[in-house]
């Protein structure tokens, strides 16, 4: 193995979030309220399967053990199963996850599992079909819920469900979500609404603090679970009376970035050191041939030495990120 990816703050990177498209067929209020708009930029084609293999192999060679395939909506790629298989068959990669809006899961999740997908996150921002439609712009609640049940049918032991709680929209549904996971092996992941370049007004109107939710959970007997080195940023809580779990992702909490263990590669081949960084680093010119692996690794290693100790969300600075779909959330 080459040298473990590590930055100047001694943070090691075991987790790659790999976007394979920025196209999405939903119009979520906190991400793409006007729907997907093509960038119109030159060289905006998405990474090919050989390029994906090369970048994942380089990361695996430097200690990465988990890859999350993201979008946009990654299942919109016609070669999605091939991408899963390519990532899963890479030596050193033992977790292959995806984050999906779930609208294709009922029909396709068995194929995803067979291709090597080990973990699934599904976005479900409301258990009320009308509110789900209002937030996502799509009347697909039944299809998404059927997809979650189908995932259990084909053998997944747990499904993670992402929820962005928003004041005056779905925040009042917390009790309903808790009742839903009481007898289901679902890890609910409450994600604090994050400010991005195009969403300042929405953030100010609807932001809910994750700390308030955490205090409520602790008061009701929920206990913090230990974290593995390639886990995501969620603080996970368990309760003896619940089969499900709760994860809290709170980017505004002090020291949130201290445990950062993940890097991002966009669908067009740029390395992003932070979801809220101010630039991306071009990798695509080093993904043309297997012989470029050492140069690719050297470039990533060098860029890691420029990674900041923290994001600057507390200052209202979301970097170059216009919306979460642009680099895979």
How would you sum up this structure, described in words?
The chain is an alpha/beta fold and 329 residues long. It has nine helices and twelve strands. Strands 7-8-9-6-5-4-3-2-1-10-11-12 form a twelve-stranded mixed β-sheet. The two termini are 29 Å apart. The model has no long low-confidence stretch (mean pLDDT 88).
Give the secondary structure arrangement, pairings included.
Elements (H helix, E strand, L loop, with lengths): L14 E5 L29 H13 L4 E5 L9 H9 L6 E6 L4 H11 L3 E5 L5 H8 L4 H13 L5 E7 L8 H8 L4 E7 L7 H7 L3 H10 L3 E2 L10 E4 L6 E5 L12 E4 L4 E3 L8 E2 L10 H12 L25
Parallel strand pairs: 1-2, 1-10, 2-3, 3-4, 4-5, 5-6, 6-9
Antiparallel strand pairs: 7-8, 8-9, 10-11, 11-12
Mean pLDDT over the full residue set: 88
Taking the sheet with the most strands, its summary is: 12 strands, mixed
- Tell me the structural class: alpha/beta
Helix content: 25-40%
| Overall shape | globular
| Strand composition percent | 15-25%
The largest beta-sheet arranges its strands as 7-8-9-6-5-4-3-2-1-10-11-12
Order of helices and strands: EHEHEHEHHEHEHHEEEEEEH
Number of helices: 9
Estimated radius of gyration: 19 Å
Instruction: Report the strand count.
Output: 12
Which spans have pLDDT < 50 for at least 5 consecutive residues? Answer: none
């Amino acid at each position: 193995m080459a040298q473990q990816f590590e930055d100047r703050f001694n943070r090691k990177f075991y987790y790659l979030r790999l976007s394979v498209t920025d196209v999405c067929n939903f119009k979520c209020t906190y991400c793409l309220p006007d729907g997907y708009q093509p960038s119109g930029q030159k060289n905006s084609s998405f990474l090919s399967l050989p390029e994906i293999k090369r970048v994942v192999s380089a990361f695996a060679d430097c200690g990465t053990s988990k890859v999350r395939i993201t979008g946009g909506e990654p299942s919109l790629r016609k070669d999605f199963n091939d991408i899963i298989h390519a990532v899963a068959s890479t030596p050193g990669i033992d977790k292959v996850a995806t984050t999906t809006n779930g609208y294709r899961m009922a029909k396709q999740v068995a194929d995803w599992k067979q291709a090597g997908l080990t973990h699934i996150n599904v976005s479900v921002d409301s258990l009320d079909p009308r509110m789900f439609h209002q937030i996502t712009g799509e009347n697909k609640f039944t299809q998404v819920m059927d997809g979650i049940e189908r995932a259990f049918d084909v053998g997944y032991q747990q499904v993670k469900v992402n929820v962005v709680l928003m004041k005056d929209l779905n925040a009042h549904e917390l009790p309903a979500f808790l009742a839903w996971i009481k007898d289901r092996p679902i890890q609910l992941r409450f994600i604090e609404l994050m400010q991005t370049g195009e969403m300042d007004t929405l953030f100010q109107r609807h932001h809910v603090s994750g700390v308030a939710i955490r205090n409520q959970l602790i008061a009701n007997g929920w206990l913090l679970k230990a974290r593995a080195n390639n886990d995501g940023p969620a603080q996970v809580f368990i309760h003896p009376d619940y089969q499900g779990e709760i994860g809290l992702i709170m980017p505004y909490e002090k020291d949130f970035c201290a445990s950062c263990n993940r890097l991002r590669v966009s669908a067009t081949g740029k390395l992003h050191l932070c979801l809220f960084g101010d630039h991306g680093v071009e990798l695509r010119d080093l993904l043309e041939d297997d012989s470029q692996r050492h140069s690719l690794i050297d470039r990533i290693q060098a860029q890691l030495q420029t990674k900041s100790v923290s994001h600057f969300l507390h200052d209202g600075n979301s970097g170059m990120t216009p919306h979460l779909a642009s680099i895979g959330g």
